[in-house]
Amino acid sequence: MSAEIVIHNARILTMDHEHPRAEAIALTGNRIMAVGGNAEILTLAGPMTRVVDAGGATVLPGFNEAHMHIFGGSVALGELSLFGVKGFDALSNAVKDYAAANPDLPLLVAQTADYTILSDTERVTRNHLDRIIADRPFMMVAPDRHTAWANTIALEKAGILQGRDVGVGNEIVMGEDGLANGELRESNAIRPAATMSVTGGREGLGVGTGGDPEHVTSEERAADIEVLKKGLAYCASLGITSFQNMDGNLYQLEMLDEIEKTGGLPVRVRMPYHMKNFMPLSDLEEKAAAWKARFDTDKLRCNFVKLFMDGVTEGETAVFVDDYAHKPGWKGEPLFSGKAFNAVATEANRLGLPVAVHAIGDGAVRMVLDGYEASINANGRKDMRNRIEHIEVVHPDDIPRFAETGTIASMQPTHPPGSAGLPLEPYLTYIGRERWPYAFAWKTLVDAGAKIVFATDWPVSPLPPLSCICDALTRKPWADDMPDHRLSLHETLAAYTRTSAWVEYMEDRKGVLKPGYLADVVVLSGDIEATSPDNIASLSPVLTICDGRVTFEGGGGR
Ligand SMILES: [Zn+2]
């Protein structure tokens, strides 16, 4: 039997410990047929085989982005990006151009607006935005998506100009004049405005309420599917063959399932059940476990529980062990009580569902570790692969607890202030210098025995894995006496391939290139090992193969 695709003349990094390097790979159907030397693999090519000469470039297992948001990211591809925009005039020009180009949008939405977009000291209010655009509703969202700023007409139409109680950990910030000042903190505060957008804010529900949109017309659903398809194609163009979507609602699962059944998903998707603090514990058995049974293929699976323990540092909604450095007396408020979270972790694990929790501050991280410990005490030591998302600050006492509890660190090399174009302030002042050594401390965690996966949290940060890998390899400490958190190229690649497959319980079929494994492969435009770390982002995928099917072919010059 001949191979369907042979890639040769490559520097293959298989990520397989036993045979780490090879020159050629043969694929047949949706599986890897053989991996080895050029001469040996070329004998598997027949007259119908597509033979690809990699020209000495790197070939890897397809990237597995361990934490992103496909629906919001797909929608954001069509919205205004304020990435790199700084100062009132630049913001004003960008928004005015976007408004002029989009005369019919019911709500103008801009993404990736830095907390310090105006200046390092001035916080945005509705009055600034009114000076840019006053006659059409406008909202801009921070890179972390936990904070948004809206102009007066948007607040008015959303019915929140007079303020509203939006629950613990959420806030419509009020001004001295007794009206909302334009800043909206966390999803409950943002949603009333987001609902006015052309998508009705449906892309925010999976991560926001965990619920499904109501009264969706068939036209709206079809439009949402088209948006998702664009996002999926974008993932494939970046060499991604798997991602772990952190949005968990049935609406997205069913749309992705329909895409898989009608033309095929070009990327494998893993999704969670999103548990919120108002949901009864019985939902875990009735919904989460039921979804796990219903969506359980190598292309689309729903086999974990996601929740939020806190918010973000810049919004003062992250939870710390000690007070915020700039605000004595304030540590943040957790979204779950310790008792409630322990019960969720224990019950989810009892049902065989691993848990992934957003925890930014060291106080939130500690509560999650406590919950995983409670689960071990109740359920015994099972192979649970629970994880913590972000871990922006970890308390030194908690570092060994990752290895002790088998907790996976899911971190984003694009997130440290100073990386990927992010401003240093207000972050560094808010956490204070004493906590700097324990911020985004991925090397410390790895050295202490934690398993690590890397991702971008797209659309919070730009999605290209090669840019993210570049950020990981070139991260600069905030001061000379701060630890160096860079990992090696191989450790970084493993966090994007082998370990992320393991996290999904799919290490027996993907994440490494070896015979019998799923044919998920990316061919790069050059040799990543011979490229200096600062130039890795200039490499690009030239061929992406997922499940044996070519999902992207670039003009990379070869
Ligand atoms: Zn996220």
Secondary-structure topology with pairs:
Blueprint: E1 3-8, E2 11-13, E3 21-22, E4 24-28, E5 31-36, H1 38-42, E6 45-53, E7 58-61, E8 63-68, H2 70-76, E9 80-81, H3 88-101, E10 108-111, H4 126-132, E11 138-141, E12 147-150, H5 152-157, E13 171-174, E14 180-185, H6 187-194, H7 218-237, E15 240-245, H8 250-262, E16 268-274, H9 282-294, E17 300-308, H10 338-350, E18 355-359, H11 362-379, E19 387-390, H12 399-405, E20 408-411, H13 427-431, H14 442-447, E21 452-454, H15 465-474, H16 489-494, H17 498-503, E22 521-524, E23 541-546, E24 549-553
Parallel strand pairs: 1-6, 2-7, 8-15, 9-10, 10-11, 15-16, 16-17, 17-18, 18-19, 19-20, 20-21
Antiparallel strand pairs: 1-4, 2-3, 4-5, 7-22, 11-12, 12-14, 13-14, 22-23, 23-24
Bound molecules: zinc ion.
Residues 67, 69, 246, 457, 460 line the site of zinc ion.
Structure description:
The model has no long low-confidence stretch (mean pLDDT 95). The protein contains 17 helices and 24 strands. The chain has an 8-stranded parallel β-sheet. A 6-stranded mixed β-sheet has the order 3-2-7-22-23-24, covered by helices on one side. It folds into 3 domains: 3-62 and 513-553, Urease, subunit C, domain 1 (Roll); 76-202, Roll (Diaminopimelate Epimerase, Chain A, domain 1); 218-503, Metal-dependent hydrolases (TIM Barrel), CATH 3.20.20. It is globular and about 80 Å long. The longest helix has 20 residues, at 218-237. With 558 residues, the protein is α/β, with parallel strands linked by helices. Strand 23 (541-546) and strand 24 form a beta hairpin. Bound molecules: zinc ion. Zinc ion binds next to loops. Keywords: Hydrolase. GO terms for molecular function: hydrolase activity, acting on carbon-nitrogen (but not peptide) bonds. Residues 50-552 form the Amidohydrolase domain. It comes from Agrobacterium albertimagni AOL15. This is Amidohydrolase 3.
